[in-house]
Specification:
188 residues; mainly alpha; 8 helices; globular
């Protein structure tokens, strides 16, 4: 049986209340989550949030906010993990800025086309989070694409596979989301 099939079976068991099955899923996918976190935090020196801390905080959010966490499939798990990572990064940036001179927000002027660099742990992340909340009121699917691409560092192809959509449609969603977010971030 393949790892993917195992994960699907464990997710089914976890949905039915089997905590051990959920632990097996999280243990199996831990390395993937850690790799995502490491890519996203690369080059962030001098900060106390590292990849391991990001994965552990996300893990606690995965379990804590959902009570008995249940995920329909691998895509749902990664979508929720990306959302949890977003939440941890935003909380970290918010707390860091609160300790540093009150943390005035300034707006970013750009969201990169290709997300190769790390997520920034500063006021720009807070402004982006606010813009994403506004986008969620319009189109939740676009927010999921941004979370998976920007906060989890997944490629358009990986997102397409997880969401069972074409890479081209994910690229269009990414472009629509970027246009909306840029307009929000430049709008005072």
């Amino acid at each position: 049986m393949s790892e993917s099939a195992d994960i699907t079976l464990w997710l089914d068991s976890a949905r039915n209340g089997d905590r051990a099955a959920l632990d097996r899923v999280l243990t199996t996918l831990y390395h993937e989550l850690h790799g995502m976190a490491r890519r996203q935090l690369a080059g962030q020196y001098g900060y106390t949030l590292d990849a391991t801390a990001l994965v552990h905080e996300s893990y606690l959010k995965l379990l804590g906010t959902r009570g008995n966490a249940s995920f329909d499939d691998r895509a749902h798990f990664f979508a929720y993990a990306a959302s949890s990572m977003r939440s941890v990064v935003v909380d970290y940036a918010r707390n860091r800025l609160a300790r540093k001179r009150g943390g005035d927000l300034r707006r970013v002027a750009e969201i990169p086309e290709d997300v190769e660099g790390p997520v920034r742990l500063d006021e720009d992340t807070l402004a982006l989070n606010t813009a994403l909340d506004k986008l969620a009121e319009i189109d939740e699917r676009l927010v999921k694409v941004v979370e998976m691409r920007y906060f989890a560092g997944l490629s358009e192809l990986e997102i397409a596979e997880l969401m069972q959509r074409s890479e081209r449609s994910i690229r269009r969603d990414w472009q629509k989301a970027r246009m909306f977010l840029l307009a929000e971030l430049q709008d005072d």
